Amino acid sequence: VFAHVEQVPGDPILGLTDAYNADSRATKVNLGVGIYYDEDGRIPLLAAVRKIEEQLAAAGRPRGYLPIDGLATYTNATRALVFGAESELVAAGRVATTQTIGGSGALRVGAELLAQSLPHATVAISNPSWENHRAVFGAAGFTVKDYTYFDAATHGVDFDGMLADLAKLEPGTVVLLHACCHNPTGADLSQAQWKQVAALLKERGLFPFIDMAYQGFDKGIAEDGAAVRIVAEAGIDSFIVANSYSKSFSLYGERVGALSVVAADAGQTKAVQSHIKRIIRTIYSSPSTHGAALVAGVLGSSELRALWEDELGQMRTRIQDLRSGLVNKLAELGAPEFNFIQQQAGMFSYSGLSREQVEKLRQDYGIYAVGTGRICVAALSSKSLDYVAKAVYEVSRG
Ligand code: LMR
Fold first, then answer.
1. What global pTM score does this model have?
2. How far, in Å, from the CA of 251 to the mean position of ligand 1?
C-alpha cells in the first residue's frame, strides 16, 4: 500500500525545530517557530496559569468528555474577550463560539464549514501570510489566492495595493485577515485602514475570516482586538474569527483555540453551530479538558485575570526591548538599515534576509530562521543578542 509513497518536505516552520534539536552546536539559537522564551531560554509558565492549575489539581476534577463544542465557561469567556464584553453581536445571540484544537484547528473547522456553504470555495490570503494558511485552506478544498499586502521597500503595508486587489475579488470570496501582529511581517493596518478594508469587504460582498493568534502581544487585549469590532461595526452580517491562547497564555502544547462564527441572526447562528458540531464529531469528536479549564479559570477570576494581563504586558514590553536591543546592536555594527525592526508588531520580524542569507545563518552560526527571512524576536534574549546581531550583520554583508 505504501510502496509508492514518497517523502514530502518537512513543515517550513515546525520542521526547523527538528533541525535545531539535531544541531549539536552550543551556540545554536532557534528563531524559527513563534514561541516566546524568557531570559533563561525557557517557555514561561505564567503565574496565573500555575495558580489556577494548583486550584484545579486540588479539586481533583473527574475527566469526562466535554461537549463537542467545548467547555461553556471557556467559550463564553472567549466570546467576551474576542468581541468585547459589550458586544451587540454577542447580546443578540449572533456569535457561535466553539473550543478548538488551537488556532489551527479553528482555521480548519472554519474552512470546512465555509467549504460546505459557499458556492465557490475561494480564499484570498495576504502576500505573504503564515505558511500554514495556504495549506489549511487547500486541504479543505479551497482555491487559494494572494492579495498584495507587504511592501518590501518600506517594510510596511502596501495599502493601496491591498485595496486594489481586494476590490477585484469575486463576491463570496473568503478574505483571510490577521487581526494584529501580522505573521510573518509584523506590519499591521492602522484602525483607520481597518475601517476602509471593512467598508470594502461589505461593499464587495466578501467574507472576512479574521485570524487572531496574538491578541495582547502588540498593544493590549482591547487594542489588538479592534479589527474584530471594526468589522462588526461595518454591518457585515456574517464573518469568522479564529483565536488562539498559545502565545497569550504561553499554553502552546495545550492546544487552546476557538472558532467564533457570526451569522445574520440568532436562528442562523444556532443552525451554523449544529454544523460545526457535526464537523468536529467526524474529525476528533470533542476537545480536551485541561487547557480550556486553565483559560476559563483565569478569565473567570478577576484576580487571576488581572495577574494574567500584567504578565502578558511584561512579555509584550520585553519583546519591544529585544527589538530595540537588536536594532541598536546592528546599528553599532554599522547596519542601521535594520532600524525598521523597531516598528514591527508582535513576535516576528520580516528581516529582509534572503533565503541564501537565512541558510548561511543556519550553516555558519546555528541560527535557525524561516526561509522567507522571518525571525522570531520573542525567542531572543539579552544573552543571545550580541551573537545574533553579529551573525545577521555578517550574512547581510555577504
Ligand atoms: C508560527 O508561525 O511559528 C507559529 O504560529 C507556530 C506554528 O504553528 O507555525
1. 0.96
2. 13
Beta bridge partners, 177, equal 210
Contact 263, 94 (CB under 8 A): yes
Mutational test site, ligand 1, from 11, 13, 131, 255, max ligand atoms within 8 Å of CB: 13
Range(s) within the chain of domains with CATH label 3.40.640.10: 63-300
Helix (H) or strand (E) holding 176: strand 174-178
Task: For residue range 329-378, list pLDDT tens digits in order.
Answer: 999 999 999 999 999 999 999 999 999 999 999 999 999 999 999 999 99
Closest ligand 1 atom, residue 184 Cα? 2
Residues in the chain: 398
Provide the residue type at 47 as one letter. A
338: DSSP letter = G
Q: Using 50, 70 and 90 to split pLDDT, how confident is the model at 120? A: confident
Q: Are 345 and 188 in contact (CB under 8 A)?
A: yes
CA distance 291 to 30: 25
Superfamily (CATH H level) for 14-45+304-396 = Aspartate Aminotransferase, domain 1 (3.90.1150.10)
